[in-house]
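Fill in residues.
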């Protein structure tokens, strides 16, 4: 379930906050679990589906900035929050200050990449660090590795993943802008959606993606190809599967988009096959382990949009962003059994308008990113958390 809580804020915004919170109703999940099992947890959330939304986070953006669709969110080793958003998804009504001539005092598109501190203050922001090179046109996916390298994806017609320093210096590009060649090509990508890094092995895993139907792995320093696989650990097949029918047997290929990838502490690879409403689990070499389905009756854009693992050593829970049903699911990682969910479609604090991504910091605070119509980020504190 979700509650709305007060948090510390500057005095000049207190009155506005009180007015806002007076209009916000409690949003509770009808599927919320009553299980209070905390086995393996070291963070502070006693009931994994109970969170309070912090409506004052983040703080107001500087420079009259406004966010477009937020298509990725990640936390780093310092519990800073990074987002990747799409300035091009804003229309003239939202960017009056930048029209020629200006039509209004507000607003201006924010840069694509923004770093926030835990209190919701902007630390830095950047977009295209090199004006001599074309920037991606469809920002999609962000990951910050343990060395504080920032990995970002360009989906749809971009077909690239890029690795930057924290300050925005380009260190590596995987794929070529505007080029793709199917799911068994070892150099080019196909509208990638997500990235994660195995620091110990120095490998980057890419959920590839909207055009391709695979997980592909490269050396995280050189970009050298390592391996790839499709659904069930088989060679990927680019043939379009039949229209999804909940009563049909699962398709043997990723239906796609292959929308998220995460690696657990016990070396399992979790993959979101969005429109097939499923999570598939693999060993790092691509050996299939198991799968689970989530809200199988969901049609159209599917239920499994993004994955995040809880920060306790056992990573007891998997948090799943479900944009179509506009909620976050909570699964027991050991069994992939649903323990509950929270959220509901809407525009109030704690509700969602196409929740696209989830991320969690070391304290168990959950952060969400919304594409259209939400175009925002939110912070949820675990009940009983610090």
């Amino acid at each position: 379930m979700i509650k709305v809580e007060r948090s510390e804020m500057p005095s000049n915004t207190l009155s506005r906050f009180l007015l806002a919170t007076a209009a916000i109703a409690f949003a509770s999940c009808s599927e919320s679990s009553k299980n209070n099992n905390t086995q393996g947890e070291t963070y502070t959330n006693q009931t994994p589906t109970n969170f309070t939304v912090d409506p004052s986070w983040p703080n107001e953006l500087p420079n009259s900035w406004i966010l477009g669709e937020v298509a990725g969110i990640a936390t780093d080793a310092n519990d800073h929050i990074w987002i990747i958003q799409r300035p091009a998804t804003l229309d003239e009504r939202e960017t009056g200050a930048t029209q020629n001539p200006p039509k209004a005092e507000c607003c201006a598109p924010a840069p694509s990449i923004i770093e926030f501190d835990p209190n919701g203050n902007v630390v830095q922001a950047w977009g295209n660090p090199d004006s001599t090179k074309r920037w991606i046109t469809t920002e999609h996916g962000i990951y910050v590795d343990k060395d504080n390298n920032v990995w970002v994806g360009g989906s749809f017609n971009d077909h690239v993943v890029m690795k930057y320093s924290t300050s925005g210096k380009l260190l590596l590009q995987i794929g070529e802008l505007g080029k793709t060649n199917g799911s068994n090509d070892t150099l080019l990508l196909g509208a990638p959606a997500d990235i994660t890094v195995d620091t110990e092995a120095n490998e980057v895993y890419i959920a590839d993606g909207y055009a391709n139907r695979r997980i592909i792995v490269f050396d995280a320093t050189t970009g050298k190809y390592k391996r790839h696989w499709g659904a069930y650990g088989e060679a990927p097949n680019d043939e379009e599967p039949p229209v999804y029918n909940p009563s049909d047997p699962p398709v043997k290929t990723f239906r796609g988009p292959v929308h998220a990838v995460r690696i657990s502490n016990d070396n399992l690879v979790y993959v979101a096959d969005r429109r097939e409403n499923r999570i598939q689990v693999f060993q790092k070499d691509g050996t299939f382990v198991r799968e689970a389905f989530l809200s199988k009756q969901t049609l159209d854009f599917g239920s499994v949009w993004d994955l995040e693992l809880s920060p306790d050593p056992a990573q007891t829970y998997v948090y799943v962003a479900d944009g179509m049903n506009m909620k976050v699911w909570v699964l027991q990682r050991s069994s992939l059994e649903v323990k509950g969910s929270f959220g509901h479609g809407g525009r109030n604090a704690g509700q969602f308008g196409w929740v696209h991504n989830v991320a969690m910091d070391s304290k168990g605070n959950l952060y969400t990113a919304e594409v259209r119509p939400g175009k925002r980020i939110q912070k949820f504190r675990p009940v009983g958390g610090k």
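The longest strand covers residues 69-75.
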